[in-house]
Specification:
This is VOC family protein. This protein is of the alpha/beta class. The protein has 4 helices and 7 strands. Helices cover about 25% and strands about 25% of the residues.
């Protein structure tokens, strides 16, 4: 398999993540207690939480049960602020090595710091979001190995 196969499209980022929730109003409130976000839009059964050039889509569903493998990695500017909010809200972590937690509907959220991952926002997007973020040395090395020195 070739990285540059002209017959196949290449993934270049995540546009959005869609999660099922049991109660849309409760979900918007839950995520609003943890994160500062703009509500992009809302219908009777869906809400869209803006994350700059991406979004989190919440859809009301009546399904129950937790899929242990289902999760998404959410990049944040300041994991310490989120850790404080999780403590204030009484939300436990799934392991002691990170900030993984579940929302009330069983969706696993894995928190990662922007500075530690290869995922990179352009200067224009960072500026538009009012963020001044950099990368750790290890993240810069990983990007440089791919010819993407930030």
């Amino acid at each position: 398999m070739s990285d540059a196969d002209p017959a196949r499209a290449r993934p270049v980022g995540i546009n959005h993540v869609a999660l099922e929730v049991g109660d849309l109003d409760e979900a918007v409130e839950f995520y609003g207690e943890l994160f500062a976000f703009e509500l992009r839009g809302r219908s009777e059964s869906h809400a869209f939480l803006d994350m700059g050039d991406q979004f989190l889509a919440l859809g009301e569903a009546d399904g129950e049960g937790v899929d242990e493998g289902r999760h998404f990695g959410l990049v944040v500017d300041d994991p310490g602020l989120l850790e404080n909010r999780l403590d204030e809200q009484g939300i436990g972590r799934l392991d002691t090595s990170g900030l993984d937690f579940r929302d009330p509907w069983g969706n696993r959220i894995q928190i990662v710091a922007y500075e530690e991952v290869q995922f990179t926002k352009s200067e224009a997007v960072l500026e538009g979001m009012g963020l001044d973020l950099g990368k750790s040395e290890s993240a810069r090395e990983e990007l440089a190995e791919k010819g993407m020195d930030p």
